[in-house]
Structure formats: structure tokens, C-alpha cells
Amino acid sequence: MGIQTPNGFNLDNSGKRIVVDPVTRIEGHMRVEVNVDKDNVIRNAVSTGTMWRGIEVILKGRDPRDAWAFTERICGVCTGTHALTSVRAVENALDIKIPENANTIRNIMQLTLQVHDHVVHFYHLHALDWVDVVSALSADPKATSALAQSISSWPLSSPGYFKDLQTRLKKFVESGQLGPFKNGYWGHPAYKLPPEANLMAVAHYLEALDFQKDMVKIHTIYGGKNPHPNWLVGGVPCSINVDGVGAVGAINMERLNLVSSIIDRMVEFTEQVYLPDLQAIASFYKDWLYGGGLSSKSVMSYGDIPEHANDYTAASLKMPRGVILNGNLAEVLPIDLADPNQVQEFVTHSWYKYPDETKGLHPWDGVTEPNYVLGPKAKGTKTNIEALDEEAKYSWIKSPRWKGNAVEVGPLARYIIGYAQKKPEFKEPVDKLLTDLGVPVTALFSTLGRTAARALECQWAARQLRYFQDKLMASIKAGDTATANVDKWKPETWPKEVKGVGFTEAPRGALGHWIKIKDGKIDNYQAVVPTTWNGSPRDPKGGIGAFEASLLDTPMADPNQPLEIIRTLHSFDPCLACSTH
Amino acid sequence: MSADLETFYEVIRRQGITRRSFTKFCSLTAASLGLGAGAATEMAQALETKPRVPVIWMHGLECTCCSESFIRSAHPLVKDVILSMISLDYDDTIMAAAGHQAEAILQETREKYKGKYILAVEGNPPLNEGGMFCIDGGRPFVEKLKEMAEDAFAVIAWGACASWGCVQAAKPNPTQATPIDKVIKNKPIIKVPGCPPIAEVMTGVVTYVTTFGKLPELDRQGRPKMFYSQRIHDKCYRRPHFDAGQFVEEWDDEGAKKGHCLYKMGCKGPTTYNACSTVRWNGGVSFPIQSGHGCIGCSEEGFWDKGSFYDRLTGINVFGIEANADKVGATVAGVVAAGVAAHAAVTAVKRIVKKPENVG
Amino acid sequence: MTQIAQVQGVLDASGERARSLQTIYVYEAPVRLWHWVNALAITALCVTGYFIGSPLPSLPGEASQHFLMGYIRFTHFAAGQTLIVFFLLRLYWAFVGNKFSRQLSYLPVWNKTWLWGIFYEFKWYMFLVKDPKKYIGHNPLAHVAMFSFMLFLLFMMASGMALYSEGLGIDSWQHRLFGFMFTLFPNSQDLHTWHHLGMWAIVVFVIVHVYAAVREDILSRQSMISSMVSGERLFRDDLPD
Ligand code: HEM
Ligand code: HEM
Ligand code: NFV
Ligand code: SF4
Ligand code: SF4
Ligand code: F3S
Ligand SMILES: [Mg+2]
């Protein structure tokens, strides 16, 4: 039977049910169920977060200065973004002002994460949805070289280079031990790249794998390690000392040079490898424009990368901020994270308990109390689920809504908002890409659009890295080396009861942490995370989230091989540990 | 393992690596593991005669940063580990297959490589709610974990999660997240703790097992001695400042800029066994202390529940009030001293009021 | 009054009786020597231990000029080893010394007179009875305190040696002997905490102990401090109980 959701989608669960569990090449545990009609077109989609750890519960009663470390462990893939959001929330609650350098270094950390996460996502989590590894075996290395050189000046592009790689790949495949490529969907009709493009992509899969480990050294320098660098309420833990006694053990010239050289390589890699690859792949898939889902209707971005320390207003934020509802690109609505009526979380379809589940709760008043129950129409047992009942509770993810609306978050959302705000940094690269590919602007609202926005953003972030590293150098040159403010370090200096909110734009989208502090301890802590928004189950009114919306109306070549499903899901870069926390 | 499978050496040769660089690789690896010259030959021999060891990498409740750390390995490069040293047949984070195509690999491995594959576990199983705080293929993760452990040759517990429980097992541990050695009882388990562990430590442990075909020597807590036998503090380059009595007293103060010891900032280096101050992180670039923050003890059991990361002493809960050993101790000593004083006063008063008759 | 309350004279486990101004040789020289070395070592351990936990303000200049923490810790370890060596000697003496040398190694819980004595001495300290009883060795309450102190001391020595073995390395004999503490406390941070708390327990004991020794010296019917110096216990009256 067909139903119409309040946010404008048609659902029909009468056809054959297909289950994909585990959804792989994502972070964490996820399940998806879809119904396909007789033509194998997806008519209903049910996405489920299948893990929960209770980090919000665990945070209660702890020292707010420690919260960054706990929340950082929400996710090791978007490592650091939760920590940054957390220290911002605590600083907001306690009205702590951080030094300018600390803001700059935090931006560098956050932008490094953006570049790293986007590159790893594109090559190691998403590429195999577009790239057929086995087809690469039949590529002509010379033609591959010609292709590579026609799109980029990247030096690793000789026929010999590709031939060598192909030989190694051949032997690997012939060994019979396919490792992570085992049981892939090789030869599936939804793969459209010619063998040469496949071979080039495989080469870059390996190059990206080598390079990503160097990118994160920026985190190591300023934060001591990666994954999970260290942070500090009131600033950053590293001290700057370029020419004094003991400089050798602080942020000194050698450290700054190392950061700088890595940034150069990041700019190079995004411009000469990532973007050309994206464009090359996109040119073969521009007819496959499914998966837009919510993106053409409602998108949201909190904004991030403050130019000025302690100024988190839209004017200071270099990433766009605002909400677009119902496809009205003419109006970007302002966001107030402290407003009890804007961000709210619902649990009608989530495995949690609220006193009144018809209502949403603003995160300051948020409640996280697990309640695992299956609906009457579920198939199987409580510990052996065959099919879920989406009319009841069906996910460990809560349903966040902005003024009651489901919204999509992430790079595509940020680019749509930046585009709507006519910010040249965001609009121009989009227009150029669209022109190059010869597709209309509506092509943006698709799986491919999401993947493209991420690539553009990666390049943007790499350039911003250059900007902020230069800014740091200028500041040091001007004699400012402060990195931490300790005025309110001691809990004795804190008010008895306060609350605060911190936000960032994580690689996957808008991230907020809300904290209440009482008597120096955490009284309540709530995180509303990008994948919570995108992966959310239905709300009380039946509005569906971005994952579910994006799968609708996609035709499957072979319902037994869920390539189209995972391709679209991957375009969001789902992070399930994040989503449920 | 069936005879038609290629050996590590064959694979590596097929990939265009020369005999010479293969030997060099063996001696470098042996050296980085702190093993003698003979070990390199032994390793080379092992690699020449064995097919790549299948590895099944499962994920429970976790944040995936152990995987993220693993792919940061510089020596060996992780692409070489995956393409040439092991056969990573199942890892939900990076594998091409999904759904039942992925699940099928688990069954196939159990049958084809019974007793021969390594089970690597990242994260841990929750036991509450019938295990359904972590659902995998519609079933509790813990069940799948036990099934796969059944036929494994050995088990590697990655990170603080699999080894100790980590953040989700911090109080009040709402899901009853449980370290894997509490549910896998019949297999040897190598714990490689850290949140996450250092990349080269992870690949070092894997290559040790695959090349020597045996488990590394473990310490009392089940950790490989080669990486976990000394504390951060024992090898910390700030140690001279500790011995001298020169500390960072406040964030970003003079001491911080000069690289003084972080003990007073709560550094847990003195109680943390890990390789950070020697191997260091991300290709040896730095480690937490070098970048100005104290060690938070991330490779130690239950490090989340020892009070604030910025306190030198463990927090103790006395009757629901949080305090540290000095506060508790000084309070008790103060009360006792006051009691003694009061007792002395009463004694004196009594002596004055009534002269005891029978004291000589 | 109970049956036991009517028991005359001394109330220690052996039920001996002493006359006025009689002196009995109680604490043999090794015991006295141990006592005062112990007192000194523990004082040093408490002071240095405290500063290991909460170090003094930082020193200026280069690290190579100073070794303050090093000296503090060295003093702690030296005092700790001294404590242990003398403890072992004292242990030996408990076998070969007089019966009073064995008193703090056991509690005669099976002895009703002794149990009653704990109660009685408690009342004496609570000002509920006029006079204490006379004892050649420790009074039963002090006996309990001494015994518990020895348990604490054992814990301090075992935990201290375990912590010390961390610096010596896990293949040291110290770690082989005392590493079991890390089975009890797998995260050595906990062992630090308990070792640190142990210090406060010992501080509490010392406060009470020194006060009691001085007070008993003045108020009780027998000598105290001088006994720990000369070894001889002097009884000051000849009353029956
Ligand atoms: C760190 C300090 C001290 C410690 C750990 C300590 C410990 C002990 C112990 C274990 C005993 C029992 C000896 C035995 O039965 O073999 C004892 C007895 C005694 N201590 Fe101390 N002591 C300390 C300081 C002092 C001081 C400062 C005084 C004197 C002012 C003192 C006076 C005595 C006396 C008088 C006895 C004998 C009690 C009796 O006869 O029942 N102690 N002490
Ligand atoms: C009455 C006996 C003792 C007292 C009161 C005492 C007190 C202390 C205290 C307060 C600490 C600081 C703990 C912390 O905050 O981390 C400490 C540390 C230590 N103690 Fe003791 N201790 C005693 C006996 C011993 C003994 C017998 C040894 C064995 C050699 C010992 C070895 C150590 C070691 C190795 C440390 C750690 C030093 C460091 O971390 O740098 N202690 N002690
Ligand atoms: N969703 C999510 Fe994250 C991100 N990006 C965080 O906030 O990945 Ni784990
Ligand atoms: S041990 Fe730490 S880093 Fe590894 S998965 Fe667990 S939380 Fe993440
Ligand atoms: S910084 Fe930490 S590990 Fe290093 S010497 Fe100081 S206390 Fe030890
Ligand atoms: S916090 Fe962890 S990373 Fe190393 S320095 Fe400490 S063990
Ligand atoms: Mg939440």
C-alpha cells in the first residue's frame, strides 16, 4: 500500500523485501531493508542503526574538562571533531575565551580531518561502488596513461607505472586469496567505467592509502597522535616556542615546516588526483542521477571554521550556516541552537524511552534511556531479526528534526547552502564542475552530487589549511604565542549551574553537543550527530530521514546484489558509531 | 592450509619484489621487533613456505579508530600488509562485499581454514539486552564472535575496547560491554591495548604472528612484551625534568614552553605501559606528551574511571562524594587528630577535677 | 559484672601478675632498635611519599642542574628498603626473641579474657572506668592496633616493592616477587592510589599511637616510653587489678 510522507515521499512496502545487513564500508553497524516493486525499483526503505554504547549516559557526573576525550571516542573516523565540539560546548557554558592561536590551530586540526576523512572515504569506502577492480585487469596500460595524463599533471602516470600495477593486481587476483575484494560485485551492470579508468582508480586507491597516513601527521604535531589527538578546554595543549630555551620540545620552526609541507602535498593531491578522478568517474555516471532524496528539499549546516577566536556567528564562520526548507533556495533560514523549538530529537521509532513520545526534546532537556522492542509486524525473534517493523521502533538512532523537519546534512548540504547564499568560494567551483560535465544544476541533488560536493569541499579545505597555517605564522611573527587560557581552568571558579552548546561541521555534517554543568560536574550531555540526522528513522508524523529518502525510486539491476543501495548509502559516508553514540 | 595456495614469498615475488629486497624486508622487520639476526632467516623461511594467513577482522561496540590507526602503518605499509602479508578476507569496514555476500565469507573461512585463521577483534560485545546493543546480520554480535573464535588459530584483541572494555564499559557501562577474553575462553588471546594502539605496534604484532607462526611472549596482563613491557615514563624524554623537579604548573606557562614534565598536569605516563615514548606516533612524528598534553593512560585497564585526566591521583568515591587519596586521607587524619586533641583535653580536665587516688 | 570481670590482676593472654615497682624486661634490644628505626623510616617515607604525590614547586634553570625529585624518590626508596630489611630482622626476632616479641604477629581471639580486655581498655579510653589494667606486653586494645598496623605495613611494603619493580623492569626479581600486586590491581594507577591511601592510614596510626604512648606513660599504672628505650616495664602500684 502506498503512503505519502509529510515531507513529500511515496512509500510502498507491498513488494519484495530485501535486507542488507551488515552494510559494509561504513563506520559502525548498520542494516537496511528495502521493498522493490515488480520492476525492481525501490519503493520503501528502512534504515537502522544497529549499535548503541550509551556515551551520553556514561558522561553524566564526570568532569566537563574530560568530556572531550569521552566524546572523541564516539568515533575514530571523524576523530577529533567530537572533541572540538565538546571543548566548545564547555567553553560556551563557562564563558571561556580561547586565544587567537588556539582558534587557528583548532581550525587546522579540523580542516585536516576534513581532507583526510574525505580522501579516505572517496578512495577506500566509496570507490568500489563505482570502480570495478576486476575490470582493471583488462585495461591497456598505455591508454590508461593517456587518460591519466589528459586529466591531470600528477607525475605517477606513465604506461610503465600502470603496467606494473596491473601485473601485481593480476598476480594478486590469481593467487585466489582476494582479501577485502572477495565476493565483491565485480561485473555488475551498474559499473560503467571503462577498464582504463578502473585501473587508474585502483592506482589512486593505493596512492591515497599511502598518503592519508602522512596527512594526519598535522594532528600528531598539534595533538600528539592520530587517531584521537588531544584537546584542551581553554585552548590547545601544545605550546609555541620558536626561538627560546627549550623550543626544540615545543611547536618550533621544524614542526611548523613539517605542517606546511604536508599542507602543500594535500593541496596537490586534492587538485591533481582527487578532483580529476572525481570528474573522470562522474563523466561516466552522469546518467545515473538517483539518490537525491532529501537534498533537493531540506538541508542544514551549522557552519564552522571561525575566522576569529570565540566568534561563532555566521559572519565569522567560513563554512556556510543556515537551513533550506522545502527546496526554497531563495531563503536560507537562520539557526539558533539554544532555541528549544529548533533542534529536537524524537524517539517514536527509536529504541529509547521518553515520558511522552509524541513530543521531541531539545538536547538540553534530552533523555537517553534504551528501550529495545520490536514491532508486531517484525519477522524473526528479538535476537534473530529477519525483518523489522518500521511502524514501530526500529533503530538505535534517534530522530532529530529542525522545527519538525527532517533535513540532510553533510558536504552536499553545505554546498547547496553556500550556493544559495551565492558565496563565490562555494558557487563557482560547483558551476564549473556542472559545466565541465555538461549537467544541469539539479544534477547536484543525487548520489553523484553528494560525492562531488565532498570532493570540492576537500579541495576547499586543503586551501583553507594553507590560509590558516599562514595566519598562524603571521601571528607568531607578530609576537603572539599564547595557546591556552587558564583563568577558568579550576572548577572552583565556575558558577554553580550553567549550560552551553558547541557545534562544528564534521566531515559528515552538522554536529552539536549540548551540556549542562552543575556543581562542577556534567549534569546532562547530549550529542546530535550528522549521521543521527541523515540516518534517522521516521518521526511521529511519518517524515523520513535522508538515508531512507535517498534510496527511493532507485532501480536495481539485480535485487540479490545490492550495489545500488550501498552506492547511495555510501555517498553519505555513514558513521553509525557517531549516529547512536 | 591447502597446497594450491600461494605462499607469502611467492606473492611478494609476483608483485615484482626482488629476492634481495625480500631478505632486506625480513631483516628490517626482525630488527624493528628487536629480534636477533637469526630471526630474520627464520622469518624469511616462514614466509617462503606459507600461504598468506587469512585474517577475519570483526567489529563490535567500537569507534573504528583501531582500524584507522592500522591503516596509518608506515613500516610495513598497510597496503603491503593487506596485499602481501595477510589475506584480510573479512573486515566490514573496508570489504567490497555487503550483506549476505559478506556473511558468506565468514562461513567459508570457518570451513576452509579451520584452526588456521587469525581472528582480529576490534571493539567488544555488549551482553545486556540479549547482546542486541550490537546487532550484526540481525543477530547479537557476541554470538557471531564466539562462532568465529571457535575455529580460529588465535585471537588478537585490538585496542582498549577488545582488551579492557574501553569507553563504553566506563561506569555505569549501560550495555554491559565486555572485553573479549571474558567471552572467548578457549583460544589464546593477544591483547594489543591502546585507544587506539600505535599503527606500527599493530602491524608489528600481526607480522610477528604470521611470520613466526606463533604468538609473541605475553606479560601478566596478556600484552606482547615486545611493546608493552615498559612505561611511558621509563622512556619519556621529559624524564630529566621530572627527576629535577621541573614541572608544567599551568597550561602554556614557561615550563610548558620549555618542555617540562607534565606530572602535575595529570600525566599518566608513570602508570601506563605502552610504546608511545619510544615508537611514537604516525611514523615517529610525536606522541601525546611531546605535543604538550599528559598521557591519559589510554592503554591501561579502566583508564576512564580513575578520576579526571588532569588529576595526579585517582578519584575515589567515598559515600558518593568524589575525592582523591589526599583529600580522603587528610580529612581522616584531621578528624583523628582533632579527636586526639579533644581526648587529651578531657583527660586533662578530669585530672584537674578529680585527682585519681590510686595512681602511683 | 561478668564472670570475667571478676578476674583479678593482669588481663593479657598469659594471665601473669606483677607487683609494684617490679620491672620486667619486655622489649629486647633488637625489638627496640627495630621500633625506632621503623619510626624514623616511616616518618621519612610519609614525608617523601607525600612529595612524590604532590611535588614541590618547580625549580628554575636547566634540568641537568637539579635532581630534587630524584633525591626525594631515592630517599623514599632507601627508607623503604630499610623498612623492609628491618622488618625481616624483626620477623626473625619474633622466632628467637622472648614471647613479647611475638605479640604483634597474632591475635589471641580464642582467649575470652583477652577479648574482654579489649572492651575494658576501650572503656578506659572512653573515661568509663576509673583505671586501666596492668599489662606486661601490650594491652589488648593496643595489641589489636599494633596487629592491624603490621597488616598495613605488609601492604605498604608489598605495594611499594611492586611500584618499585615497575622502574626496575618486569624481568627483575622484585617484579617476579611482587608483580602479583598487579594481578590484584591491573592498572598501576590504582596501586599508587592505594599505596598513597595507605600512607594516610599509617599517619592516623602514628597520631593515635604516639598520643596513646604519652598518655599511658602519664596515666597508666606502668611505664611506656622508657620501656621502649630501656626495654624494662616498670609497674607503679601493687593493687590487685
Ligand atoms: C612512625 C612512628 C612509629 C611507629 C610506626 C611505631 C610503631 C610501633 C609498633 C609496631 C610497636 C609495637 C612494638 C612491638 O610490640 O614489638 C610500638 C610500640 C611502642 N611505641 Fe611506637 N611507633 C612509632 C613511633 C613512636 C613514638 C614517637 C613513640 C614515643 C613517643 C613510640 C612509643 C612506643 C611505645 C612506648 C611502645 C610500646 C608500647 C607498649 O609498651 O605497649 N612510638 N610502636
Ligand atoms: C609506611 C610506608 C610507606 C609510605 C607511607 C609510603 C608513601 C608513599 C606515597 C604517599 C607515595 C606516593 C604515591 C602516589 O601518589 O603516587 C609513594 C610512592 C612510592 N613508594 Fe612508598 N610508601 C611507603 C613504603 C614504601 C616502600 C616499603 C617502598 C618500597 C621500596 C615504597 C616505594 C614506593 C614507590 C616505588 C613509589 C612510587 C614512586 C614514584 O612513582 O615515583 N614505598 N609512597
Ligand atoms: N556522523 C558523524 Fe562523525 C562525522 N563526520 C561526527 O560528528 O563520523 Ni564518525
Ligand atoms: S580502543 Fe579506543 S580507539 Fe579503539 S575502537 Fe575502542 S574507543 Fe576506539
Ligand atoms: S611527562 Fe609524564 S611520562 Fe614524561 S616524565 Fe613527566 S610524568 Fe613521566
Ligand atoms: S594516552 Fe595513550 S597514546 Fe600513549 S602516551 Fe598515553 S598511552
Ligand atoms: Mg544523542
TrEMBL record, chain B:
[3Fe-4S] cluster binds at residues 276, 295, 298. It is found in: Cell membrane. Its cofactor is [3Fe-4S] cluster; [4Fe-4S] cluster. It holds the Pfam family Oxidored_q6. Residues 228-309 form the Cytochrome-c3 hydrogenase C-terminal domain. It catalyses: H2 + A = AH2. Heterodimer of a large and a small subunit. This is Uptake hydrogenase small subunit. It comes from Siculibacillus lacustris.
UniProtKB/TrEMBL annotation, chain C:
Signal peptide: none annotated. One of its GO terms (biological process) is respiratory electron transport chain. Pfam families: Ni_hydr_CYTB (PF01292). It is found in: Cell membrane. It comes from the Bacteria. Gene3D superfamilies: Transmembrane di-heme cytochromes, Chain C. GO terms for cellular component: plasma membrane. The keyword ATP-binding does not apply. GO terms for molecular function: electron transfer activity; heme binding; iron ion binding. The keyword Transmembrane helix applies. Residues 26-231 form the Cytochrome b561 bacterial/Ni-hydrogenase domain. InterPro entries: Cyt_b561_bac/Ni-Hgenase, Di-haem_cyt_TM, Hydrogenase_cytochrome, Ni-dep_Hydgase_cyt-B. It is a multi-pass membrane protein. The chain crosses the membrane at residues 33-53, 74-93, 141-164, 194-214. Keywords: Cell membrane, Electron transport, Heme, Iron, Membrane, Metal-binding, Transmembrane, Transmembrane helix, Transport. B-type cytochrome involved in electron transfer from hydrogenase to oxygen. Belongs to the HupC/HyaC/HydC family. This is Probable Ni/Fe-hydrogenase B-type cytochrome subunit. It comes from Siculibacillus lacustris. The gene is cybH.
